[in-house]
Amino acid sequence: MAETIxxxxxxxxxxxxxxxxxxxxxxxNFYSDVKMIYEKKEVNLKSMMAVISLGVPTxxxxxxxxxxxxELAVIAEMKKAITSSDIGVIxx
Length: 92
Known about the structure:
Blueprint: E1 3-9, H1 17-28, E2 33-38, E3 41-44, H2 48-53, E4 61-67, H3 71-84, E5 88-90
Antiparallel strand pairs: 1-4, 1-5, 2-3, 2-4
Helix pairs in contact: 1-3
């Protein structure tokens, strides 16, 4: 079963290249499939171009979903990075 977190982006510029790089790099360190979902669009979080193509603005609500053997570890790392890098706020 997939693990999912919901995030509100708080960076005033939105999810631009720098914070997106943090998330993509984390996703690429794991075997699980990791997706970002924003406004009914679902992209592979291991692809920088896919993430940037979403055009996520500030105050946007998005989901990150991981499925695979190490899905719990992926989500734990994502939560840590999102809060410590001030990318956003974990809603649930």
